[in-house]
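*Target chain*
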Amino acid sequence: MGVLKMRKGKKRVSTFWLEVGRGLSFILAALTTIYAVAPYYIEEITYTIAPPLLLFAILTIAAYIMILIDYAVY
């Protein structure tokens, strides 16, 4: 695994959870944008997008918690 250049003293954070968090944040931002804009064009999309949006929000929070744990352990 790679190591992020961000350091706290001599501590290093692995990049795995950072990349997972970054990817999930991108997906979450895309779904949020669709959720905000699409109902003006297709009303049913609100109910279609909501469950995956909630799932990716929970996964993103979990990834950032793992980053904090990883940062605290190293």
